[in-house]
Amino acid sequence: MDFLGLRTLTILEDAIRLIEKNHGIKIDLDEIPLDDEKTYELFQRAETIAIFQYESPGMQKHMRSLKPDKFDDLIAMNALYRPGPLQYIPNFINRKQGIEEIVYDLPEMEEHLSETYGITVYQEQVMLLSQKLANFSKGDADVLRKAMGKKQRDVLDKMKPKFLEGGEANNHPRKTLDKIWNDWEAFAEYAFNKSHSTCYALIGYQTGYLKAHYPAEFMAAVLSNNMSNIKSVTFFMEECRHLGILVLGPDVNESEYRFSVNEKGAIRFGMGAIKGVGSGAVESIIEERREGGRFDSIFDFVQRIDLRQANKKTIENLALAGAFDEFEIHRAQFFYEEEGSPNIEKLIRYGASFQESKASAQGSLFGDMAGEIEIMKPHLPNCQPWNSIQKLNREKEVVGIYISSHPQDDFVDELNYHQNITLKHLKDNQDKLIGREISVGGIIIDAQHRTSSKDGREFGSFVLEGYEDQHEFILFGEDYLKYKHFLQSNMMLAMKLMITERIFKDREGNPTGRRIYTNIVSMELLSEVLETRAKKIAIVMNIEDLTEEIYSSLLQKFKKYEGEKKLMFVINDRENKTNLQLPVKNLKVSIEKELLRELREIPNLKLQLN
Q1: Residue 345 and residue 338: Cα distance in Å, rounded?
Q2: Rounded average pLDDT over 466-476
């Protein structure tokens, strides 16, 4: 029994449940068509993240080249994408695309090799061909299959004469038969059976079908089945963004325990993914919402929920994760303390008093008046809301990732100007970056100032995080003294790096190993990049979009933010396929975030910072 696809089967089941809930359609995976055009388009675009057996970068690369359009292609690629047969994939792709001629050693082989463009891919093909070419019995063919699968060289050697003799009896040239057998012996090194590959390909196709037709429900199921792995959740949330699916933070009025899809087609974060919020608390919230309807306010929430299940810690972490954001109280306000009592404790006391009074009234002679209970709502003193970094850091504490936004969202222009590769690209491609100066940016999520136990010298380390990944850097000697003031959590940095390598050799000069180094060339605050390095702003527009009204609005903005940076208009004339670059000589601006925001609000305008 093979349990490799067990999680995938659970994902399929969860996705089908969500589809039925949201669309009223009960998908029967055994009935979906195996020639669905939309599904094959997904495989052709290699949008196969979370698709069983087809999600690796290597497989994605081959999918883009192959452009599969039938189920047989998926079966074959599943069998070929393994250490042995990997070398045959380019031939397989070229033959499908008509770049390479499809040839058969014997015309009789076409019947069983046409589906794989003349390339032997499966054990079953060898079984059928041995029967067709050399009159092997079904039993002999199965012995041959087993010998190949278990790499039993002695059994193969004994069967070769029988194959040659049987083939000659069918008037096939011995030389050709010898070549075929030698090819099969090489094939035995990686022989794969079609039945196995078909099962995998079918599960892969089914996941692809659901992702192609119901992407939000499918990705919600994927996220739910990876809730315990924050790195995986981050990865799949990035895929949601790539697909244009909005992933919303938790909400007590909409979230389930796991990830779900709302009426607008957005994925809603599951409350069960919040640390310290147990299944019992979530179930009690959902049950109360189901029976009594939506919660109107934070006061309504604490009046109605079971405060034994949803205790103080639960409510605190729900608040930190943003699950109450639609209510009248902002996140910082929950934790604001006045006269020795935080607002969150006032809320819990109020909710408990309300529920006690309600229970008491229901047990009295006047129980029919229980719904009219009035208890004075506590005054919740207001305070300064948390800034973006404070809010996101606390959000990350209880969820493990940033949900509502990312600290770098406030520095998109700076990153676009400064960064030429991402931290993920740096991490995955250091070999290819040797000798190059590269630019990266991100936020410090951990910084350490240390002292070497060997020589007592100070050094530092820090982890820089980007949208997709993070990277650890270490500073020694003069570099540490020069940049140590930057080593603080939440510092947004722009860095230039040089990737170098060192080859280690023995006494005879023979290479014994190597090491790749990431050297920091420069470091500065990301917020200062545009001010210190950008020389001009270019306004790019199509000529038909640049109306007199927009031109006047632009001039007003430029005068409002006068400074030292040059201005230029780049006017595109799409009809004549030309563009005109017009420097603004009498006016300069300051590159401020507010100016960039206002410019981006103008329709069909693009910005270039140089």
Answers
A1: 11
A2: 91
